[in-house]
Amino acid sequence: MVRILFALFLVVNVLFFSGCGSPSPTSENVEVKDLKQPDFPITNHSFSQPEAVKVSHLDLKLALDFDRKVVKGSATWTLDHKQEANYVFLDVWGMQVLSVRNDQSDEPLPIILGPAHELFGQGLAIPIDGKTKTVTVEYETDPSCKALQWLPAEQTADKTMPFLYSQSQAILARTWVPCQDVPGVRFTYSAEVKAPEGMLAVMSASNPTQKAASGEYQFQMKQPIPSYLMALSAGDLVFASIGKKTGVFAEPSVIESAVYEFGDMENMLHAAEALYGDYVWDRYDVLVLPPSFPFGGMENPRLTFATPTILAGDRSLTSLVAHELAHSWSGNLVTNITWDDFWLNEGFTVYFERRIMEALYGKDFADMLAQLGFQDLEHTVAKLDAEDTHLKLDLEGRDPDEGLTDIAYEKGYFFLRMLEETVGREKFDAFLKSYFNSHAFQSMDTEGFLSYLESNLLTEEGMKEGVDLKAWVYGPGIPNNCPAIASERFASVEKAIEFWKEGAYPGKLSTKNWKSSEWQHFLRNLPMDMSQKQLSELDQNFGFTQSGNSEILSLWFVRAIHGRYAPAKPALEDFLSRVGRRKFLEPIYTAMKESDQLDWALELYGKYRSNYHAVSTGTLDELLGYSTPKA
Ligand code: BES
Ligand code: ZN
Questions:
Q1: CB–CB of 431/449 below 8 Å?
Q2: How far apart are CA 276 and CA 437, in angstroms?
Q3: Would the CB of 403 count as within 6 Å of ligand 1?
Q4: Rounded to 5 degrees, what angle do the CA atoms 245, 248, 252 make?
Q5: Ligand 1: distance of its center to the CA of 265 in Å?
Q6: 298 lines ligand 1 (CB under 6 A)
């Protein structure tokens, strides 16, 4: 008790001082000689200054309090330093730091927090000396913690227990674990998590496959990872195996359909290994989350987090699994060193994803995905400022989320495809394999990749100039030598659309055997100003409003909104009440806004906003000019 009071005194003390711009770095209990007051510069969206002191291992102890919607616990960091530094710096954001210690003293140290930044949180400076091996931070998150979503039972599939999940990328890890929140620092971790009885907890680590009566679980991540890959979830989860190394976690009522949907996962893993080398993370499992998850998927190592909106019932949307699996090489093994180099993660991953899809389902199929990607790229280039269409970004002082555009994904993809077509597939594959192999568990910047590329692939006379690296990496838009992809299957979709535009009844179009990609291409090319008759004929023939395919459904809803097609309204409202995936919500709410139906958008958004994760509400609040009603 005395200790807690003392710690509290220090928090108040230091916060008071830091509020006045002069943090007090010393306390009566700690011998800290001649300590220079710490500065809190921001580099790469972080206060962590890893060039002076780096963390190398994390020991995490957490208790999950679902009643208060907080995580309480401690993070003990093992340090790697040259014995000169006076402090190790961690990032924290919106959490309460309860105490700070190091292994050289039994007494708490002062809690020295830097000024709070709107986008990046705060630096936490922990005094160390040459002998310090570990530091420990006791803390508690806030219910409004940006990484964590606490879902009431009603928002889960089975409605039996509440549910928790984290989303750390890009800079939200610091909201639930005090850490050096930069992708250039890697560490191993072990964790003990106490969940309520009856729940299963899982992490981006070795995982239990069965519930423990006590609700207590242990985890190990023995390969070093960056902070944005720390992940945690807990709820009424069960596990089912798919292959020898692959499986799925989901709520009991979802598990069977997930096992079916991801039935090709083990084959994907084999295809990936055949391309670019052994899978080094032991197991690859997928966790199917409740539908509020703001992303399609997140490549948390050993355990991809995925939206249930890919459970279409026919395995048609599993390229997302190929994508997250591919990150086990591009991103998790060789990691972008800063968020300015984000294309190294995502562009490589899209390239790899499409190679996996090609290996499993053929070139036709993969090329349709690439064509859809090219259309996305064209839209994105038209929308963004020119500098934001460079592969290498400059996100200094900005939210790294702003780099999360199709430039990294699709311009990155087409850059690599152009290189493949230039040197031939065999050479390119050998190059990529050796790239992953020689940089495993390291971070990479754009320049490092370019120099590796120049010395290992573009070695022939004139090649470097021929491919025009500069235009691709440091220039705007889509360079002239971007590969063009012809798809016969899309050509016949385009024919069907022409036919329909000339007045043909939808039932007369040859749509037999169309796959999800063909339907997406069809819907994307329908006009926004369709008549009621056109909308209802299309709907009656193709059942869009009732589609179980979320990609098709969201494209259809956008057209239904523009055409004020009332029969789609109940399904649309149901979708918006459940699904929190930003990729779908953004175009749907945008369509309402752009078609002069902002009132309707705000009515629905006000009703369902609490079902969405902070990542999505951040974007949508701005889009709709929404401000939280005062209590
Ligand atoms: N790593 C990303 C998701 C991400 C990126 C989250 C940046 C936060 C910041 C993940 O691998 C991803 O790209 N997901 C996509 C799906 C994919 C198939 C393109 C998504 O969620 O839409
Ligand atoms: Zn990705």
A1: no
A2: 8
A3: no
A4: 145
A5: 18
A6: yes
Report CA torsion sign: 332, 336, 338, 339.
negative
Burial annotation 146-165 (CB, 10 A radius, 16+ → b, else e): bbbbbbeeebbbeeebbbbb
Which amino acid, 52? A
Ligand 2 mean position, distance from CA 517 (Å): 19
Question: Topology of 488-624 in CATH?
Answer: 1.25.40
CA-nearest residue, atom 21 of ligand 1: 296
Choose which residue among 227, 298, 329 to substitute to test ligand 1 binding: the one with the highest number of ligand atoms within 8 A of its C-beta: 298
Cβ of 340 closer than 6 Å to ligand 1, yes or no, is no
Superfamily of domain 329-478: Neutral Protease Domain 2 (1.10.390.10)
Strands 200-203 and 232-235: antiparallel
Query: Sign of the CA dihedral 597, 602, 608, 612?
Result: positive
Segment 52-68, tens digit of pLDDT: 999 999 999 999 999 99
What residue's CA is closest to ligand 1, atom 1?
Answer: 298
CA atoms of 512 and 303, how far apart (whole Å): 37
**Within the chain, which residue ranges are assigned CATH 2.60.40.1730?**
2-236
Ligand nearest to the CA of 554: 1
Q: Which ligand is nearest to the CA of 228?
A: 1
Residues designated catalytic: 324, 409
How many residues in total does the chain contain? 631
Ligand closest to the CA atom of residue 318? 1
What is the CATH code for 2-236? 2.60.40.1730
Residue nearest to atom 3 of ligand 1 (CA): 298
- Residue 336's pLDDT is what? 98
| Band (10; pLDDT cuts 50, 70, 90) | very low
Question: How many A from CA of 346 to the centre of ligand 1?
Answer: 8
Note the Cα 583 to chain centre separation in Å. 12
Per-residue pLDDT of 403-437, as tens digits, reads 999 999 999 999 999 999 999 999 999 999 999 99
**CATH 1.25.40.320 segments of the chain:** 488-624
Helix/strand/coil (H/E/C) assignment for every residue in 401-465: HHHCCHHHHHHHHHHHHHHHHHHCHHHHHHHHHHHHHHCCCEEECHHHHHHHHHHHCCCCCCHHH
